[in-house]
Amino acid sequence: MQLVSPATHQSLYQKGRRLYTRDGTESYPVVRGVPVLLAGGEGADWHREIIEVLLWQFPEKIDELYAKLDWSAAISPVYIEYITALLKDKEGILAAARSYAHDDTARWIIRQTDPRPVPPAELKTFKWRNARKFAAATVASARNNGEGQWAVHLPRYAEQVHLGDPASIVELSTGSGFGTAAVAGQKARGCTMYSMDIGFACHGNTLSIAQYLHMKDSLLPVCANFWHMPFADESVDAVCSHFGLDESREIGQTIAEVSRVLKKGGRFVNVSRGSAASRSFDLFEPFGFTQDEMVEVCKAARLYGDTQGLTGVCAGHHLALNETHAFPTARERTGEVVVSVFVRQ
After folding, report:
1. Taking the C-alpha atoms of 325, 326, 329 and 333 in order, what is their torsion angle to the nearest 10 degrees?
2. What is the DSSP letter of 328?
3. Rama region for 257: left / alpha / beta (φ>0; ψ in -120 to 50; rest)
4. d(Cα 254, Cα 272) in Å, to the nearest integer?
5. Of 44, 53, 42, 46, which is closest to residue 303 (Cα–Cα)?
6. Is beta strand 319-327 parallel, antiparallel or unpaired with respect to 337-344?
7. What does pTM read for this prediction?
8. Fewest CB atoms within 10 Å of the CB: 13, 153, 174, 332?
9. Count of CB atoms within 10 A of residue 228's CB?
10. Which secondary-structure segment (H or E) carries 199?
């Protein structure tokens, strides 16, 4: 499985700290050992999907808000302050979501606020995450189904990814690395696994887990956008995602790319919350939304809404639902976790 240009799907070769297409028309940086394969105008950092949708017409305010937010809290007064000032109330939120849903330019907006390929803040976070202590704790937690049994689904998830002994795996969203560790921990030595995330800092997790598991040559990071995956058509045996779709925009475009890169008969194994309400209801509830209304807003704006909606999107891209497994969790905010398995037709 070879990396290709995210724009033209031409094969790439490395020379020094850059990757080049054979015709020399494109090049991409390799930063601290991580290929940064982003299309023009994309930045190597992650943004909260609902904020991107609701405030897409105020990009400068999004940057201000991100600089002030503390997402360790359940709900931030700063977020409420910005939404109230810019969108006023529930009707304003609905109008913003509709404008995003019906404006073709909105769906592709990604801001590039720094001319360098990776923002300094992402590099700083990457450095402390790339540590053996972190990797050891992550791998141990994945093997033990998470502390407090929050991740009782992990064994089923990893089992389904490896069913059929795939020689190539692409993971969507490294994130904190728990899904990465669960899948990589059962990976055959001859299998190549790329862990993909647009947030550069997350790849410190991939590198540390690969080093801890002695898989530096077969567990590989790649900084890329799910909308433009750097893999050739029908080149991947299995694609997997551990809550990655719950935290992304443009689900339809992502699923189209999953279908494109999967071989016929290949598997897409996805872990998601049963409903988007369990992740983001606290962002809507202060403005009078019910959980059902919030889910409908997400679906309309092409965000992850629920497993039923995802199944419908997948069916439209030649991915047939094979089976699902629902797991109740100990975390009330997470709610039910669903492992869904799709097969490329």
Report:
1. 130
2. -
3. alpha
4. 15
5. 53
6. antiparallel
7. 0.94
8. 332
9. 16
10. none
Say if residues 245 and 276 touch (Cβ distance below 8 Å): no
Q: Which residues pair with 344 in a beta bridge?
A: 319
**Angstrom distance (rounded) from CA 252 to CA 256:** 6
How far apart (Å, rounded) are the C-alpha atoms in residues 255 and 178?
A: 22
Query: Any idea what the Cα angle at residue 152 is, between residues 186 and 255, rounded to 5°?
Result: 70
- Residue 96: what are its φ and ψ, rounded to 5°? -65, -45
Token duo for residue 44: 């190597």
Strands (E), 140-182: 168-172
Beta-bridge mates of residue 14: 19
Locate all alpha helices (DSSP H) within 119-153, ordered by sequence. 120-129, 132-143
Q: Are 324 and 264 in contact (CB under 8 A)?
A: no
Longest dimension (CA), the chain: 55
Strand 18-21: give its sheet, edge to edge: 12-15, 18-21, 27-31, 34-37, 219-224, 192-197, 168-172, 236-242, 262-273, 337-344, 319-327
129: its two tokens: 């995450």
Q: Which domains does the chain have, with CATH numbers?
A: 126-282+301-344 (3.40.50.150)
